[in-house]
């Protein structure tokens, strides 16, 4: 999900990513999995249920994730990543295989309530330089045909999640705009196709077709415009707005929406900005970040994840005896930050007020935790040590995390073991 410039901040249209879907009721949420340490899928499914989410949007069709959603009753949107569009768009056989493996099998043998297939994820984003322009529509058609062929034509709908940048408005208001010139005809073709196969999206002229907001939210860290109070106000305001059923000026009435997002993901690219790893309404380990009333729980509060298993209570910090001007400090910090996560250290962020030693310790600890507290991951030459005293400052929101226990997927595709070994070797290479 892209950030918005300061100019656009008040204009939530640019934070919304529009999905082309039929209307259903209930609040949904995006479940992304780009984390170094993911919570086990069954814990997340309980988190979804405890918080009354009736719908979930996935970015792929991971087997373990879908298996955990079986029998939950939660409506699921599975996704075809952009890098698979060429294959399913180029071959009907590949599309049929994708549907058989990633939709039909889960519905029949696992009772997963799959209702939508998202074909690509914001494939027309301007930063992709048109890489997916000619393949998205063929992929959409092939997947739709494959669904019909599998007898799922009326149960599972296709959609293309699009960023608001498909839209251009000369007046500055959403209602004054039209599709971007370079994709104008393609967008009309897609809208027509979806409307004929009754999985609609619309703008002016297709007024009877409903719209869904595929991603909406506010990050809590990594930028001076991202903190828990802004995020709480934005998300609570949005929840109250949609529960009032007011819709938008062009489109009054209920809007269906998927919050962005469920949990923080520390392995996401921070290229769009350091906030990119902080979109969750829950932290990476399933703690509520701020009070948010979704209108779905008796208490009116978010319910945290249950049964989360943590590593030991220990941290890696800068040795008190080490000097700030030690020549090893700078390369050690850049090494740690390069491989772990220092997105909470910049100006105006949750740990932005740490002093220089706190800063260095934060970086060391992040690396240490990400590597499952391996002893060798706290051997920055002569300047680091392991401690059992929590270095988290008593005031403010800065937190020195303890990592959760790594979860090994049943399919054995978890990368955390080779990755920590690899970083271990890197470490020896650099420091020995
Ligand atoms: C099913 O989805 C997964 C996850 O996105 C993907 O890796 C796999 O290739 C897909 N299977 C087929 C047969 O296309
Ligand atoms: C898009 O083009 C720009 C400028 O030509 C280039 O820097 C960038 O890497 C390209 N991005 C992709 C995803 O191809
Ligand atoms: C899409 O365009 C690329 C380059 O512009 C081309 O290599 C590819 O064959 C095209 N694919 C289709 C299905 O037209
Ligand atoms: C802490 O680290 C951040 C990011 O690396 C940097 O911008 C900031 O100036 C540092 N603060 C101190 C006090 O060193
Ligand atoms: C580590 O610190 C000790 C004492 O402060 C010093 O004698 C030693 O030379 C240092 N070693 C390295 C590799 O800097």
Entry keywords:
globular, Methane Monooxygenase Hydroxylase, Chain G, domain 1, alpha/beta, binds 2-acetamido-2-deoxy-beta-D-glucopyranose, 10 helices, 2 domains, TIM Barrel, two-stranded antiparallel sheet
Write the layout of secondary structure elements.
Layout: E1 17-19, E2 28-31, H1 41-50, E3 55-58, H2 63-69, E4 75-80, H3 85-90, H4 92-110, E5 114-119, H5 133-149, E6 157-159, E7 162-163, E8 167-169, E9 177-179, H6 184-196, E10 212-216, H7 228-243, E11 256-259, E12 315-318, H8 329-339, H9 356-370, E13 384-387, H10 416-431
Parallel strand pairs: 2-3, 2-11, 3-4, 4-5, 5-6, 10-11
Antiparallel strand pairs: 1-7, 1-10, 8-9, 12-13
The site of one 2-acetamido-2-deoxy-beta-D-glucopyranose has 4 residues, from helix 5.
Give structural notes.
Helices cover 30% and strands 12% of the residues. It is an alpha/beta fold and 432 residues long. It has a nine-stranded mixed beta sheet with strand order 6-5-4-3-2-11-10-1-7. Strand 8 and strand 9 form a beta hairpin. Helix 8 packs across helix 9. The protein is globular, with a radius of gyration of 23 Å. The two termini are 40 Å apart. Residues 1-24, 202-207 and 410-432 have low confidence and may be disordered. One 2-acetamido-2-deoxy-beta-D-glucopyranose is lined by residues 128-129. One 2-acetamido-2-deoxy-beta-D-glucopyranose (NAG) binds at residues 90, 134-135, 138.
Quantity of strands, as a count: 13
- Relative strand content: 5-15%
CATH topology of the largest domain: TIM Barrel
CATH-scheme architecture of the largest domain: Alpha-Beta Barrel
- Give, in order, the helices and strands: EEHEHEHHEHEEEEHEHEEHHEH
Give the total of domains.
Answer: 2
What is the 3D form?
Answer: globular
Major sheet strand order = 6-5-4-3-2-11-10-1-7
Secondary-structure class: alpha/beta
What is the terminal separation in angstroms? 40 Å
Identify the bound ligands.
2-acetamido-2-deoxy-beta-D-glucopyranose
CATH superfamily of the largest domain: Glycosidases
Task: Give the number of helices.
Answer: 10
Helix content: 25-40%
GO cellular component, one term: plasma membrane
Pfam families: Glyco_hydro_17, X8
GO molecular function: glucan endo-1,3-beta-D-glucosidase activity
GO biological process, one term: carbohydrate metabolic process
